[in-house]
Design goal:
- By secondary structure, the protein is an alpha/beta fold.
- Strands 3, 4, 5, 8, 9, 16 and 17 form a 7-stranded mixed β-sheet that branches.
- The two termini are 19 Å apart.
- Bound molecules: NADP nicotinamide-adenine-dinucleotide phosphate and zinc ion.
- NADP nicotinamide-adenine-dinucleotide phosphate binds next to helix 1 and helix 5.
Amino acid sequence: MVVKAYGAYAADKPLEEIDIERRRPGPGDVRIQIAYCGVCHSDLHTVRSEWSGTLYPCVPGHEIVGSVTAVGGAVGKFKVGDVVGVGCMVDSCQDCPACSDGLEQYCENGFIGTYNAPTADSPGHTLGGYSRQIVVDEKFVLRISHPVEQLAAVAPLLCAGITTYSPLRHWKVGPGTKVGIVGIGGLGHMGVKLAHAMGAHTVAFTTSESKREDARALGADEVIVSRSAEEMNAHANSFDFILNTVAASHDLDAYTTLLKRDGTMALVGVPEHPHPSPNVAPLIFKRRAIAGSLIGGIAETQEMLDFCAERGIVSDIEMIRIQQIDEAYERMLKSDVKYRFVIDNASLEG
Ligand code: NAP
Ligand code: ZN
């Protein structure tokens, strides 16, 4: 069926209204009427081809929430009317060691992203949540148990939430650990809320003096404006774990030197240009590590959604109409997001 969407035809073109085709639900598929879709910095990187390899037309969006409007005959987990979410993945091989371990994001045959990934459906690559409807295999659909009034603010959990939850869990953040979250944007503000909810001593690093108060309100025990060498030096050798969400290349040494012996900094930001190569001495002399982490598996995404629902955790959002998307991207580039734009998908209808 034909569905209204918003996408770009080239890296240097603004997004515009486009009609796309969605497949008829197969036996294992769920059709979802999309209510809201969060705006991730990855959408901007992709639509402007900052990572290369973008397929056009490009319809971004992988923080999708809405309600089920149809299910295939073999669907067991969902029925019409259920409130559901879809994150960054819509398929994986289901057979390799990573998929067998519930880590579909590390699928050895390549997971199928919600946008810009190969598919048999027209036009040959997946099209994301800046659209009115989507059809997804039920294995990649998540159940949402937050109150329905919070639905728009739940959308960013599907990427920003899981991308910060997964490394915080993997590196065993909790009571007694001192954790830094670098970059207080969409991912970072969720990182602060989640690290705080896990019981860690949570420290926010921001380049924006204007976010100092906000970061405390989000749950940070301390806030460091990273442009101040004095504030940074006061925390040398003290962090168990640092989660770095910054979307631009920067000096990593400024953070590795803040780790304790055996501490780790996990990078989740994927800047257009590489970071300057880190200095090895601070790593070697205290056995510190720099690591990376990619979103999270489907089971862990459900665990994160349930964790957040039980504690009333949602994203801090600014709702936009789809027609404001280019303006939202420009503000995102200026670190001017408080703290995630979410599209009201009803605005696709004019
Ligand atoms: P965002 O909302 O734009 O937030 C990024 C934050 O980084 C900004 O708000 C800003 O925070 C800080 N920042 C920006 N430019 C900076 C600079 N030049 N130097 C230092 N700090 C800077 O972006 P997002 O949606 O959170 O995404 C962050 C990155 O993660 C993107 O690269 C995105 O593609 C990537 N990502 C990765 C995964 C994964 O699975 N690994 C998943 C989703 C997204 P302050 O104002 O506080 O400094
Ligand atoms: Zn994302």
